[in-house]
């Protein structure tokens, strides 16, 4: 069975949790355990690089990574989103280590206009990996990033003739305003030919284009008449304002068991919906006015925010807006109508409205409710937050006489 795909402006993407073993340092006497795998291709969708794991044992079904390839629906007039490397440069061999397995590490050489995204492990000596092992990405679909703070494996004390350390590439924030092109964790690595940090010019991550398609909420305040008096909790004009479809590793770690069980549909859809919501209805059919008050809480609570992070990896706050927890990349470009650094609608607060309900009249208090939803690819609702939008409340009503 093939896993579902999604197209991003000429780049077709899926995920896999199936890996082929290439090498481990078992028997080498090294201080650090390490095993290297290569993600198995799905048709012409291939890995960006090999996968390194700082332990022994199988990882199929336990880890996941991106696969990419050309989209048949790519816009005309542009170079393909992907290209094969032209060759490889040898970066390391375990020769001299005396380990149980022979292996070499290689760096893909990208053609002009493209960028290689990760290094490749090969079993045995003297033979380069296949050029079909990986795709290189068109340069505009990449971004310079960084490595984890320390290497995840090195050959220290193995006795190998050449020194080596391996560094995992990770995403960095794209700024509070966000961007149309979203960095995605690649789970690739780069080789350093010593025990120092790998060359940062090779720490690149893929970008997925997710345009802004935010829709303004223009549904008018509901008109109240004697025959259309609503009830508390009624909603009017609910609509989706925006959404983003991304691989789940944008939000959650690549070893999330809940998502690995759904790897055949590996994309999350995070959306924002809005509607008018009836906070209260006061019907005064007596011959005199009366006073009432209503306290309304708005914004997102700490408990709601923590639950959404835990369940779906979506982080929401008044200080930085919306972002993927695993990637630390914001979705503010996609989830706002205009570029703004103000996300006060997510700030938790409350207001108390005091008002008069005239005799022989009904008064209705409306607010705008917002829903942030995260759905797995199989349609399962992973998390949902409902909140009142800011201090955006309005009165309606009608005469009953």
TrEMBL record:
It holds the Pfam family Vps62. It comes from the Eukaryota. PANTHER family: VACUOLAR PROTEIN SORTING-ASSOCIATED PROTEIN 62, VACUOLAR PROTEIN SORTING-ASSOCIATED PROTEIN 62-RELATED. This is Insecticidal crystal toxin domain-containing protein. It comes from Botrytis byssoidea.
């Amino acid at each position: 069975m093939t896993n579902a795909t999604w197209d991003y402006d000429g780049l077709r993407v899926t995920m896999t949790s199936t890996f082929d073993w290439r090498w481990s340092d078992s028997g080498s006497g090294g201080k650090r355990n390490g095993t290297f795998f290569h993600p198995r291709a799905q048709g012409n969708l291939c890995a960006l690089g090999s996968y390194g794991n700082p332990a022994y044992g199988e990882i199929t079904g336990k880890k996941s990574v991106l696969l990419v390839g050309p989209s048949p629906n790519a816009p005309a007039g542009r170079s393909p989103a992907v290209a094969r490397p032209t060759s490889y440069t040898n970066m390391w061999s375990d020769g001299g280590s005396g380990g149980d397995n022979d292996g070499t590490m290689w760096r893909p050489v990208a053609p002009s206009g493209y960028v290689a995204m990760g290094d490749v492990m090969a079993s045995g000596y003297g033979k380069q990996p296949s050029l079909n092992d990986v795709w290189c990405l068109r340069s505009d679909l990449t971004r310079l990033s960084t490595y984890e703070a320390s290497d995840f494996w090195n050959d220290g004390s193995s006795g190998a003739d050449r020194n080596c350390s391996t560094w995992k590439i990770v995403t960095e924030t794209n700024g509070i305003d966000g961007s149309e092109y979203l960095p995605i964790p690649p789970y690739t690595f780069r080789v350093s030919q010593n025990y120092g940090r790998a060359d940062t010019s090779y720490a690149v991550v893929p970008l997925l284009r997710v345009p802004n398609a935010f829709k303004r909420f223009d549904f008018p305040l509901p008109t109240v008449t004697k025959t259309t008096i609503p009830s508390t909790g009624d909603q009017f004009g609910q609509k989706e304002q925006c959404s983003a479809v991304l691989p789940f590793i944008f939000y959650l770690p690549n070893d999330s068991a809940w998502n690995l069980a759904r790897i055949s549909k590996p994309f999350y859809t995070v959306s924002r919906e809005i509607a008018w919501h009836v906070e209260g209805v006061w019907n005064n059919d007596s011959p005199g006015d009366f006073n009432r008050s209503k306290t309304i809480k708005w914004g997102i609570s700490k408990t709601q925010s923590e639950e959404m992070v835990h369940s779906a990896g979506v982080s929401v706050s008044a200080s930085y807006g919306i972002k993927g927890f695993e990637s630390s990349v914001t979705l503010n470009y996609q989830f706002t109508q205009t570029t703004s650094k103000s996300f006060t609608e997510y700030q938790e607060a409350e207001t108390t409205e005091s008002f008069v309900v005239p005799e022989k009249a009904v008064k209705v208090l409306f607010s705008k409710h917002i829903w942030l939803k995260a759905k797995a690819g199989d349609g399962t609702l992973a998390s949902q937050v409902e909140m009142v939008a800011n201090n955006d409340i309005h009165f309606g009503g009608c005469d009953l006489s």
